[in-house]
Amino acid sequence: MFSHPRLSARPAHHRLLSCDCPRSALVALHKAYIELFTILLKLRMLKFCGIFKKKDLQEKKAGERTDPFTWMIDGFSTLANRGADTYYSGSFTACGFNWKLRLESVLEEDGEKYVGLYLSHDDAASKNSVIKAIYKLFIYDQLHAEHIQKEGEDYFHNKSHDGFCCKVAWNKFNSSKSGLLFNDCCIFGADVLEACKWDKGISESLSLNKDPTSRIYTWAIKDVSKSNVVLTSEAFAAGGYSWRILIYPNLAINKDSLGVFLTMDNAANLASKTRVYVEYSLCLLDIHNGKHQKLTGKSLFSSGSSGWGWNEFLSWKDVQNPSRGFLHNDTCIIDASVCVLGVDTIA
After folding, report:
1. Between 163 and 321, the higher pLDDT residue
2. Domain MATH spans what residues (predicted)?
């Protein structure tokens, strides 16, 4: 049997590599090929991310769309070996504002580990403003183009605030099959779609206490029917503030009724835009029948509104009725229950 000489003969370059070239040269050539492939892949990713797009020579106006920003980290294992840490990219401009990317190399949540990416506001000229931004965050897949991305809206203000998090499980990120970390290189990105200063106007913040407790104060008032002035209890503490009970016994301004009020004793010390949210009850005790007169309310106490209650808590006729048990030897007893629920602040 004869073989065709063109099919059986080896190409000259194949004979050279297999016969005449030492093994070390083959290894070096293979390594160079891998490095060249990696460089070409990175260049393709950079082009995909918009790095090589033609730059706009005109100055971008605030709110105008700009090209996506990419952040390549070559040698990511150096960061990972140092454990959980925070890293920031350089500053970039998008939609007229300056930004940075923040990377959490190891982010732990509910016992799981993630790689977390955030967008940070980095505009010193706008530190006293609130910036509303709509944007995307990316963790690029360098092999399959199956990128991890998250899009949303956030508000950036002068306090530390880094927006929402685009994250991926550490095991997936570190897997050789995912393409998120290829040849110890990873690429992150941000695309700010819209951004503008947000006029927040007047805002209100209510901070509620987690475990509010009530304080009950009892006040016995003598010679009630003989009084024609406003009567005031001694001060008592509840929820970190000082309080008093006020009663108006059968005064003309109350239309033949008993007026009962709760007042904050130190309201003048409150800031002008601070209000204390209080749940309270005022109870006139029926010492004979136990059929007490009790009213409950919730109010915001402030320097401008330091007292709340009821002008017509109970008719004076009912107060003086012997069968009702509210007056005994011209003495009545009032219980005040005060529970501070929280503090309301207007900005």
Report:
1. 321
2. 66-192, 214-338
> Could you tell me the residue range of the domain that residue 176 belongs to?
61-198
Last residue of a domain, one of 152, 176, 198: 198
265-312 pLDDT, tens digit per residue, is 989 889 888 999 999 999 999 999 999 999 999 999 998 899 999 988
Residue 314: which pLDDT band, with cuts at 50, 70 and 90? very high
The reply to whether 194 and 228 lie within a common domain is no
Q: How far apart are CA 336 and CA 243, in angstroms?
A: 10
Same structural domain, 181 and 215: no
- What are the C-alpha distances in Å from 92 to residues 99, 192, 196? 5, 11, 16
What residues does 103 pair with on adjacent strands?
87, 117
Q: What is the dihedral of CA 283, 285, 264, 214, to 10 degrees?
A: -70
Output 313-322 pairs: Cβ under 8 A, ≥24 positions apart: 313/257, 313/258, 313/259, 313/260, 313/282, 313/284, 314/257, 314/258, 314/284, 315/256, 315/257, 315/258, 316/249, 316/250, 316/256, 316/257, 316/258, 317/256, 318/293, 319/224, 319/250, 319/258, 319/284, 320/225
- Type of residue at 113: K
For residue 120, give the CATH number of its domain.
Answer: 2.60.210.10
The yes-or-no verdict on residue 33 having pLDDT over 80 is no
> 191 and 214 in one domain?
no
What Rg do the C-alpha atoms of the chain give, in angstroms?
A: 38
- Those residues with Cβ within 8 angstroms of residue 15's Cβ, 6 or more apart along the chain or in another chain: none
Give the confidence band of 200 by pLDDT, cuts at 50, 70, 90: low
Q: Over the stretch 315-325, which tens digit does the pLDDT of each residue have?
A: 989 999 999 99
55 domain-assigned: no
- Of 148, 169, 198, which marks where a domain is finished? 198
Give the CA distances from residue 119 to residues 147, 190, 226, 280, in Å, rounded to whole numbers and listed in that order. 17, 8, 71, 45
